[in-house]
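Worked example 3 (structure in, sequence out).
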């Protein structure tokens, strides 16, 4: 195994493989023609198709899975998948493992040696942020990937498959920690980009409010050994999940009643499992993230600001959206979703499901 070194966020990742330099990727300028050519030349035997996502994070890879599924069903074949095995010590491989529509998963740098094996190669590697600019219409990356592959989507759900052994491990872990009799909230305080992180003090105050008044609830906090804020979460009624990998976290999530997180990988894992979620949005747009996650309620304190979503192009005095985030709104929304009661009357709430407030539905279509 390659040695680990800390990155700029303090997380430990493998040192780069001495294979080939990364190619500079360009935005999606026009749709990929691979499937169009395939429709004209392939007859009889199922075609051999490969999808490439050579960079990006866990959420990005999950958001390609509806496209994988649609292609697999249309052409009656399993799709090979090329991705980055270096990212977070193989997290992208772990996300795709067990996907029923995927055949072989391999390191994307091997593609040059394999390209002659395929009838069609669809490269979904791109800086999707080119579509994410202030005042731009919100587009979910699920749709961007499908449009580029020129495949219609009848099913926008994401696929993340766990084994029965993994679920049994999670059940035993929860029991061993004395948590089986409690309602559980899984909390991811931070994302891979600090600009998407809600203030730690605000999230902590909200969680403290929930746990102080509801003795039947416990919180599972996701952190890692190099996280400078990890000590902030060690208080009564919390249990810290330090350095757990994405499959372990997904298995534990299966037994949780709620997920609380920012715009992050865990949000997309929660969407794949249709898990009730309260998610916090600052400079990014929930209409491009949770519109296919009806079990989610987004708290977007920048919703009423004239220049939001700013997509990180914030005024000089900092992210005004995060300064407007209220702990009591987070706490009330979490309890309402867990108890299936009306959401608090706040203009900051956005949902595409049927969660109800005391005065109206908050829904952006």
């Amino acid at each position: 195994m390659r040695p680990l070194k800390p990155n700029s966020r303090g997380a430990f990742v493998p040192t780069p493989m001495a294979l080939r330099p990364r190619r500079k990727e360009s935005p999606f300028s026009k749709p990929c023609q691979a499937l169009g050519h395939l429709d004209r030349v392939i007859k009889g035997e199922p075609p051999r198709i490969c999808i490439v996502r050579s960079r990006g994070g866990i959420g990005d890879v999950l958001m390609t899975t509806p496209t994988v599924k649609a292609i697999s069903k249309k052409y009656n074949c399993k799709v090979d998948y090329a991705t980055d095995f270096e990212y977070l010590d193989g997290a992208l491989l772990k996300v795709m493992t067990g996907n029923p529509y995927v055949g072989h998963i391999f390191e994307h740098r091997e593609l040059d040696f394999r390209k002659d094996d395929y009838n069609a190669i669809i490269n979904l590697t791109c800086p999707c942020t080119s579509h994410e600019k202030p005042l731009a219409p919100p587009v979910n990356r699920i749709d961007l990937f499908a449009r580029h592959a020129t495949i219609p989507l009848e099913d926008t759900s994401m696929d993340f498959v766990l084994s029965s052994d993994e679920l049994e491990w999670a059940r035993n872990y929860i029991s061993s920690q004395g948590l089986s009799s409690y309602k559980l909230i899984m909390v991811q305080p931070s994302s891979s980009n600090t600009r998407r992180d809600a203030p730690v003090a605000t999230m902590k105050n909200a969680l403290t409010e929930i746990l102080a008044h509801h003795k039947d609830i416990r919180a599972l906090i996701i952190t890692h050994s190099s996280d400078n804020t990890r000590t902030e979460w060690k208080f009564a009624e919390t249990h810290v999940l330090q350095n757990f990998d994405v499959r372990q976290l997904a298995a534990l999530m299966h037994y949780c009643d709620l997920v609380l997180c920012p715009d992050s990988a865990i949000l997309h894992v929660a969407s794949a499992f249709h898990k009730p979620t309260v998610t916090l949005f600052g400079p990014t747009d929930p209409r491009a993230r949770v519109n296919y996650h009806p079990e989610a309620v987004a708290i977007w304190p920048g919703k009423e600001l004239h220049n939001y979503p700013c997509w990180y192009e914030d005024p000089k005095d900092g992210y005004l959206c995060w300064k407007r985030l209220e702990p009591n709104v987070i706490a009330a929304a979490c309890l309402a979703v867990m108890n299936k009661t009306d959401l608090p009357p706040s203009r900051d709430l956005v949902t595409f499901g049927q969660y109800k407030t005391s005065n109206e539905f908050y829904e952006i279509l």
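Notes: Confidence is low (pLDDT under 50) at residues 1-6, 8-23, 359-365. The chain has two domains: 4-14+25-149, 164-351.
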